[in-house]
Write a structure and sequence with these properties.
This protein has eleven helices and eleven strands. It is of the alpha/beta class. It binds glutamic acid.
């Protein structure tokens, strides 16, 4: 099986060093294994969409020397590569219908006020917040049909299995488990028909034949939902690799205090693209033997998931 990986940014703003590191890890992994590196634009969150962002990503990644074999600007056999266009092409619909038919997803007609009341109730009673069924998870077909006939807006949610343990595997952390009862039923399709990140990212990973999902640790809270979605569709999961966050040398969340966060600022300051690649590749990953200054060929020939550290990677601007 040949390796297929994706870098899947949401075009909401600038390209930061943390995202560049994920792009570098994916690119090195693909090149190490003679695989395919895909750029996918996850633009289904129209409220946070920034029209200038995709151009910033493409320009920055090009400057940084990251090449893609498939993507919106190069094409490829699994296009389109923007999720809004994939939605327009109807690519998600058959899978969502299958989930509804098999009872793994349901239509939920809660109004924003009802959802707020539910959250308030959970807060007051110190319960975990999140949607675990409400009035709609087990609603009768007649009740659903009536709400639809009345033209009430609805979202489609995934029915997270209750009373069982959701089991997943992360290449860095090993086996992970969550009790199904503690995971809320994520929205797959919003009231305007747009898929959410959870639905679009996972359906695309399957449709695009992704073999390894190399992404940031911030996605780990979504991981049980993603596992449940793959299980509901009976699909084999890719290998998931959740890379630890980057922090400053003081152990605090990376911010401007630690150095520029926008990648193009480094370009403007005269840093060379390969130096920056070399630098970000070594944040939280080590090839062993205390090597630090590496050529492109050396990075490619030594990059391995096993070398990614489980603890946060330190961003040390002095080293750069
Ligand atoms: N689009 C997501 C983000 O920019 C990444 C999702 C993923 O890698 O699964 O945070």
């Amino acid at each position: 099986m040949s390796v297929r990986v994706r870098f899947a940014p949401s075009p909401t703003g600038l390209l930061h060093v943390g995202a560049l590191r994920m792009a570098v890890f994916n690119s090195l992994f693909a090149r190490r294994h003679g695989g395919v590196n895909i750029l996918r634009i996850e633009d289904t969150d129209r409220a946070r969409y920034n029209p200038d962002s995709e151009a910033e990503f493409v320009t920055t990644l090009k400057w940084a020397g990251i090449e893609f074999d498939e993507g919106p600007h190069v094409g490829g056999p699994h296009g389109p590569y923007r999720q809004s266009e994939r939605k327009e092409a109807g690519l998600y619909t058959p899978h969502i219908e299958k989930l509804l038919e098999s009872g793994h997803a349901y239509k939920a007609f809660d109004t924003p006020e009802e959802l707020e009341q539910m959250r308030e109730f959970q807060r007051i009673n110190k319960m975990p917040t999140g949607y675990r069924g409400g009035d709609w998870r087990d609603a009768s077909p007649e009740k659903v049909a009536q709400a639809e006939a009345e033209g009430k807006p609805y979202v489609i949610r995934l029915k997270i299995p209750h009373g069982t343990t959701i089991v997943g595997h992360d290449a860095i952390r090993g086996r992970l488990e969550w009790e199904g009862d503690t995971v809320d039923d994520p929205v797959l399709i919003k009231a305007d028909g747009m898929p959410t990140y959870h639905a679009a990212a996972m359906l695309d990973d399957h449709m695009m034949g992704i073999t390894h999902v190399v992404r940031g640790e911030e996605c780990i809270s979504s991981f049980p939902k993603h596992i449940a979605l793959f299980n509901a569709l009976g699909w084999e999961m890719p290998v998931f690799v959740h890379c630890p966050v980057i922090v400053g040398t003081d152990g605090k969340k990376l911010s401007k205090r630690h150095g520029a966060t926008r990648v193009l600022d480094y370009a403007a300051q005269g840093y060379l693209p390969h130096s920056l690649q070399n630098f970000v590749a070594l944040i939280g990953w080590a090839p062993g033997e205390d090597r630090e200054i590496m050529t492109d060929e050396e990075l490619v020939s030594t990059f391995a998931i096993e070398g990614i550290q489980p603890s946060p990677g330190k961003f040390d601007i002095d080293k750069l």
